[in-house]
UniProtKB/TrEMBL annotation:
Pfam families, A to Z: HbpS-like
Taxonomic superkingdom: Bacteria
Lineage: Bacteria, Bacillati, Actinomycetota, Actinomycetes, Kitasatosporales
Protein name: UPF0303 protein F0344_23125
UniProt record similarity statement: Belongs to the UPF0303 family.
């Protein structure tokens, strides 16, 4: 799996197409299971986190992941919480302006990371209600893994 870097319009289209009809506790478990299965099939050394608001609904650490991945999850997730967009889209927007998130956001890079891997969980009629985050691969691959799992999950929901 070696995805090419998506454009800003492609990233926006992904977010729009992955708005879900609902998302609750059982949904977090199903989505988390999909992510674990995809990561295990690829022997991906990742940590996975799913949240609704401030509550962590799902977490898994696969072989090869470390506590550092959890720290990256927290930093990427905070970007989603602040911007209501994927961490990859936020970072890509800064790069498109010829700068970086770290240089121009005025946010502490020890607290926020606009690197791929955290994606907003958006629900029809409610907006962004949480996030799903993966850490352990290069940022484009973290992002692509989350998107792939969300696409499979949305299909299961009939979306």
């Amino acid at each position: 799996m070696n995805p090419t870097a998506p454009t800003i319009s492609e990233l926006i289209a992904q977010e729009r197409s992955l708005t879900l009809p609902h998302f609750g506790y059982d949904d977090a478990y199903v989505l988390g299971g999909l992510l674990v299965a995809l990561a295990r099939a690829r022997h991906a050394p990742v940590a996975i986190d799913i949240r609704r608001g401030a509550q962590q609904l799902f977490h898994a650490a696969l072989p090869g992941s470390t506590a550092d991945n959890d720290a990256w999850i927290d930093r990427k997730r905070r970007v989603v919480e602040r911007y209501a967009e994927s961490s990859y889209l936020v970072g890509t927007r800064f790069r498109a302006k010829g700068t970086t998130f770290e240089e121009s956001s005025r946010l502490d890079p020890g607290v926020y990371a606009a690197h791929g891997g955290s994606f907003p969980i958006a629900v029809e009629g409610a907006g962004v209600i949480g996030s799903v985050t993966v850490s352990g691969l290069p940022q484009a691959e973290d992002h692509a893994l989350v998107v792939e799992a969300l696409e499979q999950f949305a299909t299961k929901l009939g979306g």
